[in-house]
Design a protein that fits this description.
- This protein is mainly alpha-helical.
- The protein has five helices and two strands, in the order αααββαα.
- The chain has a single domain, classed as Transmembrane di-heme cytochromes, Chain C (Fumarate Reductase Cytochrome B subunit), CATH 1.20.950.
- 66% of the residues lie in helices and 4% in strands.
- The protein binds protoporphyrin IX containing FE (2 copies).
Length: 187
């Protein structure tokens, strides 16, 4: 059950698509709920983010154990370097996003809960309805900034990544995308 040049393991493929699709949905919901002040979506965003964090950690452990998959085809050296950088940024960003989100909520006094199951209670301010007493306001602010900056970077890198995958499939017509869809390809 390990990755090879001609076939990726079902674990690699499943983890890639579960994390990848969820991250794209989380980015879209995050941008939507903040821009349109749709506060009712916050608990859903946080709950899904904390659940997918568990899968993300499993994926990182799997990657560390397996190493990166060998390239499916022979690329130019700049393509090779770019794809390595992009993969590192993507995998690091998948860890930074949920951690900064959880720190922002917890340190800001908003607590942590997954679909109503509370891990850390919120600390509402009795003198100001709807406001919280932060555990550490400045640190929550840094986590908030990190969440925002990392999400902007991630959106740009995901666009680059998806364009690269489509270029391989449609222009180079190699097996890069097919292999990530679980198919066996020619070496
Ligand atoms: C798992 C991956 C996650 C992704 C991809 C993600 C993405 C985003 C994005 C794109 C935004 C909008 C940023 C902005 O422009 O202000 C956002 C906002 C937010 N996220 Fe996440 N997020 C994730 C996980 C989490 C988690 C686990 C939590 C908390 C437990 C969280 C809490 C929040 C909160 C509270 C906001 C709103 C901040 C504000 O009101 O300005 N996020 N998220
Ligand atoms: C529709 C969206 C996506 C498509 C079509 C896609 C396609 C691919 C393909 C074809 C590969 C194999 C590249 C190679 O063999 O060199 C790959 C690898 C990878 N993708 Fe994506 N991807 C998508 C979304 C994402 C997202 C949103 C993330 C993370 C936020 C992500 C993270 C990665 C990583 C880290 C790898 C390296 C291999 C691995 O760790 O499994 N992808 N992707």
């Amino acid at each position: 059950m390990s990755d090879s040049k001609t076939k990726l393991s079902c674990v690699t493929v499943a983890l890639h698509w579960v994390v990848g699709v969820t991250m794209i949905i989380m980015l879209s919901v995050g941008v939507y709920m903040t821009n349109f002040e749709e506060h009712s979506l916050y608990p859903l965003h946080k709950s899904v983010g904390m659940i997918i964090f568990v899968v993300i950690l499993m994926r990182v452990i799997w990657r560390v154990k397996q190493g990166w998959p060998e390239a499916a085809s022979t690329y130019k050296s700049w393509e090779h370097t770019l794809s390595k950088i992009v993969h590192w940024v993507l995998i690091i960003a998948t860890v930074v996003m949920p951690i900064s989100g959880m720190l922002m909520s917890a340190l800001g006094g908003y607590g942590l809960a997954v679909f109503g199951l509370e891990f850390l209670a919120a600390t509402p301010n009795p003198d100001e309805a709807g406001k919280m007493i932060p555990i550490n306001g400045p640190a929550a602010g840094i986590a908030h900034e990190t969440h925002e900056i990392a999400s902007t970077l991630l959106i740009a890198v995901v666009l680059l990544h998806v364009s690269g995958a489509l270029k391989h499939h449609l222009v180079d017509k190699d097996g890069t995308l097919k292999r990530m869809l679980g198919r066996r390809i020619d070496s």
